[in-house]
Write a structure and sequence with these properties.
This protein has helices at residues 17-77, 80-92, 134-145, 182-218, 220-235, 250-275, 278-287, 309-316, 320-337, 362-392, 399-408, 439-454, 462-471, 506-524, 527-536, 542-551; strands at residues 7-9, 12-14, 101-106, 111-116, 123-124, 150-157, 160-169, 174-181, 294-306, 340-346, 349-354, 412-427, 432-437, 458-461, 476-485, 493-500, 562-563. It is of the alpha+beta class and 567 residues long. It contains 16 helices and 17 strands. It is rod-shaped, with a radius of gyration of 53 Å. The relative contact order is 0.06. Helix 9 runs antiparallel to helix 10. The longest helix is centred in the N-terminal third of the chain and has 61 residues, at 17-77. Strand 6 (150-157) and strand 7 form a beta hairpin. The strands form three sheets. Strands 9, 10, 11, 12, 13, 14, 15, 16 and 17 form a nine-stranded mixed β-sheet that branches.
Length: 567
């Protein structure tokens, strides 16, 4: 797969299933641990409070005993405050928390003494301070009236809420209280909760990496399969997923099922490609449907036809199909290599269309395809000639073999024109075909027909000349051949022979220069000079003009346009 963690198909982000599983797993694991920690913390807090109560009860007993003893000392010595201070001093030695407190006060709330762990100051009765929580005092007095001299107590101070235990001391006529600040106990509990939480997070992180490693190993087959599927989506092309290293699990079974489906679709798509143009196949693959639709487009049409096809058919019979297939195999490849699509194949003729997907350079692509088609056809003829020469080294060809030899020497003509045409699908929902319709399509066919008359392999229109010269002006030299009015048309048009600049010899350039000189006299109506100049030209096309001018004189009101009587 791509290095990106979250890939996109269209506008939808694809989240790896392993990540989803890991997020769920980690979330549940973390939630479980924190919930367990919370429950443990809550139970621990209750246990801590219970333990604190036990400790405070023990300390309260000691304080109660010490208070009784100190009261006897007080009664003996008469030093009340010394006895009170001794009680307070003994109690403070058992404090553990910062805000631990011990105090004693009478039923009216007058404090006998009070001492806190975080304070060096001891409150005594001389300070004349009252116990602040009258509500708690009232409850204690009610309990005392009911005969309950001890119990639990919760009271509020400026420092916060305290909880603890008390016992009434009849000698001193005071409630002796041992208490702890609730917030401090909670703080200790929260601190413990925080430490455990950090431990949980650390353990989760360790297990996360371990889990990722295990998930990566277990789900590596899923990553590979989804990576292959993503590549197919991006390339708009189905292929087979490699399962050679995959385990025998249900995911592999799904991938194997996909491979089976992919192979079936590819087979159907391959068949479809053979009967439809490439742009139509691409559109059908992308949109998942084919509609009866079309629109006007500026395209270039290439029309190629085999010369003397009737003679070849009569000579070869059914074997003409094999010859056509050899020819079309190379021709169609050259069209596709130059970004063209096959519009139709009609017997010995082929119509190719350029510019259906990319308008830039369509005329140049068509012209390149035209010359490549003529070259592969020439190569086929040369192979046939070489084969004949091998046979003749052993024996002469028979009359029938000679006839077959001439039949297989395929020669073609190519006409190219361009312009606005209709391009799309026509027919019905039950049967349709992709086609191109327009005057320029017929024009390409007429230009191909002119290759037989002018003895040239390729003839193009002014449209092609203009576009190619704009794209690559130095690659081709366009020599004007004639200005004709083909059958079925009311206007004349200039036709051109596109010669490759890098393949023209000086002799050939001189020949075309001579031809152009003669053509100028011909256009001007000076047929006498034109005929004399054409006779100096070795170009086979010149003979067409010589025969034309010998069979008739220059027409009155001559415009330079020759009207063709045949297609």
């Amino acid at each position: 797969m791509s290095k990106s963690l979250f890939q996109k198909v269209g506008n939808t982000r694809i989240i790896p299933i392993s990540l989803k599983l890991m997020v769920i797993f980690v979330s549940l694991l973390t939630l479980s641990n924190f919930a367990t920690n919370f429950v443990n913390s809550y139970l621990a807090r209750r246990q801590i409070i219970k333990l604190n109560n036990s400790i405070m009860i023990s300390q309260l007993k000691d304080m109660y005993t010490a208070a009784g003893n100190q009261y006897q000392i007080y009664m003996f010595t008469g030093k009340r405050q010394d006895s009170v201070n001794s009680i307070a001093d003994g109690v403070s030695r058992g404090f553990e928390l910062e805000n631990s407190m011990a105090l004693a006060f009478n039923i009216e709330g007058k404090i006998l003494f009070g001492v806190k762990n975080n304070s060096d100051q001891v409150i005594n009765e001389e300070d004349k301070i009252d116990f602040s929580d009258q509500e708690a005092l009232s409850v204690m007095n009610q309990n005392l009236e009911s005969g309950h001299t001890d119990g639990s107590i919760v009271f509020k101070t400026a420092a916060g809420e305290y909880y603890g235990v008390y016992k009434y001391q009849p000698d001193w006529k005071c409630f002796f209280v041992r208490a702890e600040l609730r917030a401090e106990t909670m703080k200790t509990n929260l601190s413990l909760f925080g430490i455990i939480s950090l431990v949980i997070v650390a353990i989760v992180v360790v297990f996360l990496f371990a889990g990722l490693a295990m998930y990566r190993r277990i789900l590596q087959n899923v990553h590979k399969i989804t990576g292959d599927l993503y590549s197919m989506q991006q390339e708009q092309q189905l292929s087979v997923i490699d399962l050679s290293q995959s385990p025998n699990d249900d995911v592999t079974y799904l991938a194997a099922s996909f491979n089976s489906l992919s192979s079936t679709i590819n087979n159907l798509l391959g068949i479809f490609r053979k009967f439809a143009s490439r742009d139509l196949v691409a559109k059908a693959y992308k949109e998942h449907q084919i509609k009866l639709e079309g629109k006007g487009k500026n395209l270039v049409m290439l029309f190629s036809d085999i010369k003397s096809f009737t003679f070849r058919t009569e000579t070869l019979g059914n074997d003409i199909i094999d010859l056509l297939n050899v020819h079309y195999d190379q021709t169609i490849r050259k069209v596709h290599e130059n970004s063209g699509v096959i519009g139709s194949i009609i017997g010995d003729a082929i119509l190719a269309v350029f510019g259906t997907q990319n308008q830039k350079g369509k005329s140049l692509e068509a012209l390149e395809a035209a010359w490549q088609i003529t070259e592969v056809t020439k190569e086929l003829r040369e192979k046939m000639i070489a084969r004949k020469e091998e046979i003749e080294k052993e024996r002469p060809l028979t009359e029938s073999e000679e006839k077959v030899f001439k039949a297989v020497l395929i020669d073609i003509g190519v006409g190219i024109d361009g312009g606005n045409v209709f391009y799309g699908n026509i027919g019905s929902d039950e049967h349709m075909t992709n086609t191109v319709i327009g005057d320029n399509v017929n024009s390409a066919s007429r230009l191909e027909g002119l290759t037989r008359i002018y003895h040239l392999p390729v003839i193009v229109s002014q449209y092609i000349k203009t576009e190619v010269e704009e794209a690559e002006p130095e690659k081709y030299i366009f020599y004007e051949i004639d200005m004709v009015q083909v059958k079925g048309k009311t206007e004349g048009k200039r036709i051109y022979f596109p010669a490759r600049s890098d393949q023209l010899t000086e002799e050939e350039k001189n020949t075309f220069d001579q031809y152009e000189k003669a053509l100028n006299f011909y256009y001007q109506g000076d047929w006498t000079k034109a005929k004399a100049e054409f006779k100096k030209c070795s170009l086979e096309t010149s003979q067409v003009f010589i025969e034309r001018m010998e069979s008739s004189s220059c027409p009155k009101n001559w415009s330079g346009i020759w009207t063709m009587q045949t297609k």
